[in-house]
From TrEMBL:
Belongs to the polyketide transferase af380 family. One of its GO terms (molecular function) is hydrolase activity. Residues 49-316 form the Xaa-Pro dipeptidyl-peptidase-like domain. Coiled coil: none annotated. Keywords: Signal. Residues 1-24 form the signal peptide. This is X-Pro dipeptidyl-peptidase (S15 family). Gene3D superfamilies: 1.10.10.800, alpha/beta hydrolase. InterPro entries: AB_hydrolase_fold, Polyketide_trans_af380, Xaa-Pro-like_dom.
């Protein structure tokens, strides 16, 4: 597949991305929940017979009825204690019933094999989360939205394009699912810095696909699951082969909150999932996109925004903001939630 004009900028926008990310990424010191006008209720619900575990954030001490609600999806292989909790707490402060949950095979939720990262399953799990919210007496079933961060943005787009129960969508610092983004991601800093050519990154992607298919065949024949690390400071054959990504994530693994592994066979279906045609082009509900100047692939994000079918759409560009600030920077997250909440409340009615 030829390299398009999106090229390396599909992941990093420009060489200045590198400095912005390296300077901006720190070991995780997550922003403390702000304001505190909410209560938390641990919850469980079913998705295709699998028990999912989440936390439901109720505004104003939980004494609410017929409130708008938001279900939240996070980044690649996320757990609810990472970025989702930062958005859920703030959305609850804005009057939403907010649900942060672990998708199947991740975190506290059930499901085997563990750490199987298939976006298609997350779309289904999001639908189940929406059904759970509809069942709650605190929630107005006609005012339910979905919010996705990073990888979750792609999954929210696809889900909202096909699920009539999702009445509006917010996508934040999205990693949008298309081939050019895959090439740029697997090429890592070497591709960004010109140490390897696009053709070598394409070859790495093809090798990843072949290894994933072999891992799937092995699992089907023997039941054995082959894993690779998600991040590593040196290895190039990991899920997210960028040193700055390692800098942010490894602290979570060190603290035992997040598993630094993904089932290799995940990439069979992962690479089949795309968010432009199946998501943006079919997306007819009101949608707000929030994206940083140095977030993951601004050209890809803006292409998705232009493709969104809904006439009720809004793009918020955050100058000078990098991808990981949408995970942990209190000021950046406060502003993102403020923009998202205002848009969602306006269009949910």
């Amino acid at each position: 597949m030829p390299w398009s004009s999106v090229c390396i900028t599909a992941f990093c926008h420009s060489r200045s991305f590198l400095l912005a990310v390296v300077e901006g990424v720190r070991p995780p010191k997550m922003a403390p929940p702000r304001h505190g006008r909410y209560t938390v209720e641990p919850v469980t619900f079913q998705s295709e017979g699998v028990e999912l575990v989440g936390n439901l954030y109720l505004p104003q001490g939980g004494d609410v009825s017929k409130a708008p609600a938001v279900a939240i999806l996070g980044p690649f292989c996320y757990v609810k204690e990472q970025a989702p909790v930062q958005y859920a707490t703030r959305l609850a402060d804005e009057g939403f019933v907010a649900l942060a949950f672990d998708c199947r095979t991740h975190g506290a939720s059930k499901g085997e094999p563990r750490r199987l990262e298939e976006p298609q399953n997350k779309v289904v799990d999001l639908g189940s989360a929406i059904e759970f919210l509809k069942s709650r007496p605190e929630v107005d079933a006609d005012k339910i939205a979905a919010l996705g961060v990073c990888e979750g943005a792609s999954e929210v787009m696809v889900a909202a394009a096909s699920n009539p129960n999702i009445k509006a969508a917010a996508v934040v610092s999205g990693h949008y699912r298309e081939h050019d983004n895959d090439v740029a991601l697997i090429g890592g800093l070497e591709l960004l810095g010109g140490e390897i050519k696009v053709e070598e990154a394409e070859a790495r992607l093809q090798q990843r696909s072949e290894k994933a298919k072999a891992a799937l065949e092995k699992y089907q024949a023997t039941g054995e699951v082959e894993y690779i690390p998600i991040v590593d400071p040196l290895r190039k054959d990991v899920g997210l082969p960028w040193k700055p990504i390692w800098d942010w994530y490894h602290g979570w693994a060190d603290r035992g909150i997040w598993e630094n592994r993904v089932a290799l066979m995940s990439y069979v279906r992962y690479m089949e999932f795309e968010s432009l045609n199946a998501g943006a082009a079919q997306l007819k509900v009101p949608t707000i996109m929030i994206h940083g100047e140095f977030s993951d692939g601004p050209p890809s994000a803006y292409k998705h925004f232009e493709t969104i079918a809904s006439e009720k759409k809004k793009l918020v560009k955050e100058d000078g903001v990098n991808h990981f600030q949408f995970y942990e920077d209190p000021a950046v997250i406060d502003k993102a939630v403020g923009n998202a909440a205002e848009f969602l409340l306006e269009h949910l009615g």
